[in-house]
Write a structure and sequence with these properties.
With 185 residues, the protein is α+β, with helices and mostly antiparallel strands. The strands form three sheets. It has a four-stranded antiparallel β-sheet. The protein has a two-stranded antiparallel ribbon with strand order 1-8. Strands 3-6 form a two-stranded parallel sheet. It contains five helices and eight strands. It is globular and about 65 Å long. It has two domains: 2-143, DNA methylase specificity domains (Adenine-n6-DNA-methyltransferase TaqI, Chain A, domain 2, Alpha-Beta Complex), CATH 3.90.220; 144-185. A hairpin with a 7-residue loop joins strand 4 and strand 5. Helices cover 36% and strands 15% of the residues.
Length: 185
Amino acid sequence: MRKTIKDICEISTGVYEKPTVGGTVFYIQSRDFNDYLELGESMSPELQEDPKLKKHYLRKGDILVAAKGGNYFAAVFNEEIQPAVASSTFIVLRGLDKTQVLLGFLAWFLNHPKTQLYLSLNSKGSNISYISKTLIMDMEIDLPSLETQQRILEIHQLRMQEKKLVHRIEALKEIMINEKLIRTL
């Protein structure tokens, strides 16, 4: 079944605020994500609580799409930190129709190399490239059955675990080799 993104969820943009010292609200920016699209553990609140921010508070299951800078990754927000808002560098997808699409499947689709190529080719801007909210809204997605989506997600999660393990093995090998080399001195 072929749908547009706007047919399966609500779409909004992040907010622009000036960070302050001693805030109580987390202000998520692209740099806060690691290579595995997980939020960094050393984040601290940067915004003061304000009634106008409350409507922008992120909820579990929101998908953040980086819309500026050329790396248009998508990451699922799982309430790792609260309260939090997305900066204006993000497009926020919320209220996914779970009868049609699994949350992780939409993020996987947006991160797929073919989708990333499409976003790059349709980005705007000469200095800092960006993708528009309209581009995301009108993007089409083929939705297989929920069962097939779940299988795709399981395979993807196993692949991500494998990548983390390979990275960890390489780091340990580096330590081991350096230790052996220093002992030979």
